[in-house]
Amino acid sequence: MKPSKLTMSSCIIALIMLLCASCSLASRKTVTAKCYNISDEYPDDYNPSNDSLPYSRTLYFHFMLYNDSKKSLLLPINNKGLIDTSSVAIKVCYGEKEVVPFCSFGLKSKGNVVNPGDSAWIFIRLYAVPLRRLGLYNAPLDTIIKKIKLQYVRTISSNNAPDIEFLIDSQNVKRYYRSRSEEKSNCD
Prior knowledge:
Elements: H1 5-26, E1 30-43, E2 59-66, E3 73-74, E4 88-94, E5 97-99, E6 102-107, E7 113-114, E8 119-126, H2 128-134, H3 141-147, E9 149-154, E10 163-167, E11 174-178
Parallel strand pairs: 1-10, 1-11
Antiparallel strand pairs: 1-2, 2-8, 3-7, 4-5, 4-9, 6-8
């Protein structure tokens, strides 16, 4: 039995669409966001089991994303500088556990485009509840830095945003801790 012209043309159109889709995915840019510093709400010498002062813990990760390409990059952010969770998510993973932290972007220009040669800050905040879910709430900061993994997850396949690889170099990242002097009263 001979294939009909309609079936043959449908196959050709489907093949062309498949090739176009695979080419656009292959050309998607991957950019690196490097962690420059991490701020911890715990004092450096804090031991939750032996210390009389209770502290709530929040971690702040500060990443810098550089656009070293010749094209502008579209970042998935809304008009308030927050990540557009309808198109992507950033997950923090530890073993089989994962949480979605609070994320925001800091761009030099208005809008959500990073021009060639420009950069953008990505701020990721891990509050107490996600840290507890990961089982890392009372872990030393160095342990957290070495064990967690940040993943950029695309939820809409047609999004033109680049893929982002998050890097934390445990040897070179600056660590900032809460000072115990912040606990003293200023009402003397």
